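Researcher: Here's my situation. A collaborator sent me these components and asked whether they could plausibly form a single complex. I don't have experimental data yet, so a predicted model of the whole assembly would be a useful starting point for our discussion.
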Amino acid sequence: MALKRRRNRTPSPVCPLSECMTILQGAWTPNIIWYLSEGPRRFSELQSDIPAVSAKVLTARLRDLEAKGVLTRSVRATSPPSVEYDLTPLGRELMPVIQAIVDVGYRLSICARNQNRRKVAQAA
Amino acid sequence: MALKRRRNRTPSPVCPLSECMTILQGAWTPNIIWYLSEGPRRFSELQSDIPAVSAKVLTARLRDLEAKGVLTRSVRATSPPSVEYDLTPLGRELMPVIQAIVDVGYRLSICARNQNRRKVAQAA
DNA sequence: CAGCATCCCACGGGATACTG
DNA sequence: CAGTATCCCGTGGGATGCTG
């Protein structure tokens, strides 16, 4: 940060506010939390909950969230191995946040649509 | 979407929930909204509010948010041109959301730190 | 002042194949 | 079942330089 040799790799400027947002970083993170809100779920269950996500990314996001204390990962050493993910109390506190985003997001998308319509009308 | 020729460019799988999150997409978006919450602000003011952001990105995010109806952009055709950005009512509704994320995020970071300490203790 | 334009890199994420 | 490994691409974003 002090000296920036050419083409600095910009390690992480990130002010405090952005840092907080990293909790919900990753396109699938909110969905994962959402589906876990109904109770603990196994890896494959999450995969069918969110079919579009790849195993790699699902693993990555789950590990991230685990490290952040949003959820817990418990391995059951059964013959077909099974792993269960569950929200921590703290993770559960994210629910209203996500819900709020969904709410406002929905109204914003409607608003944007209307504005587009208006623009089209003006253009005509 | 229907037929996927090899190496599909995966246009945008995005389930509804993720789509809502796109409002807050971009590392600097929450900060921009945050600093606008205290009232309308000019481009250069936002730049000094968030020194780490580049002009390019700031412009990009502002345009995005404008298109989404989160804020308005008003050009004042003065001799030193000045542009003011202001939150829309809808944009202002994002404030509690961001605040909530900050709150939970703060406690999560503390939690993570404690866990690290615990792990270090175990390792020792 | 408030931006575009250009270049270039890092990283998130998809696809596919393989493993304990 | 629940991943890991590899490869590859698109995009977000930083740096620098230029303009109305």
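Model: Some features of this prediction you could bring to your collaborator: Chain B touches chain A through 41 residues (CB under 8 Å). The CA atoms of residues 115 and 121 of chain B lie 10 Å apart.
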